[in-house]
Design goal:
Structural class: mainly alpha
Number of helices: 6
Distance between the termini: 113 Å
Low-confidence stretches: none
Oligomer: single chain
Helix content: 40-55%
Length: 177
């Protein structure tokens, strides 16, 4: 059998499928069946019909012949299959199960990483605020220490506590061994 690109409503535009001139496509069988309903004993393109008889669906038999049956659009069919979940039972979807699972896991990973980043950002903001508070405290303590260790402040504390110490008036001498 030869591979040929055929534009067929059943297969989608331009999909590869096995094609043989001896075996009519599903589209061709439906076309012949519709012609057979209109006119028995027909020939299509000069070739007598050898396809199996067409079995109409019960909904078409029950409908009156003068009222056309409403045709659902392709989009509404896909949306209906998507909402009912029957789209997952199709062969195309079954072949894509590993990829769907991978995509679902990647979506969960993406969502969890987003939550983790939010948590880390909140923690960063809290730590930044704490660093600012600690820096302000450190600056205040450093200024108090500098004020308390000035020579004049030390002499004032010695006199206040009445400790018997005097300030040296001569420079210290270095003792050599």
């Amino acid at each position: 059998m030869a591979k040929e690109v055929i534009i067929d409503p059943e297969w989608g535009d331009g999909q590869l499928r096995d094609w043989s001139p001896d075996v009519p496509s599903q589209f061709e069988r439906r076309r012949r069946a519709s012609l057979r309903r209109q006119e028995p004993g027909f020939e299509v393109d000069g070739v007598p019909d050898t396809s199996p008889p067409f079995d109409p669906d019960p909904a078409a038999v029950d409908a009156p012949p003068d009222t056309p049956r409403p045709r659902r659009s392709r989009l509404s069919e896909y949306v209906g299959m998507l909402l009912s979940g029957s789209i997952l039972g199709r062969d195309e979807a079954r072949r894509a199960y590993p990829y769907m699972i991978l995509v679902a896991l990647l979506m969960l990973l993406y969502i969890s990483s987003g939550f983790r980043m939010q948590q880390l950002r909140r923690r960063e903001i809290d730590l930044t605020r704490q660093v600012k508070e600690l820096r302000a405290t450190a600056i205040a303590l450093e200024s108090r220490r500098m004020a308390a260790t000035r020579q004049s402040a030390i002499l004032a504390q010695i006199e206040l506590r009445q400790i018997p110490l005097e300030e040296l008036t001569t420079p210290p001498k270095v003792i050599k061994p």
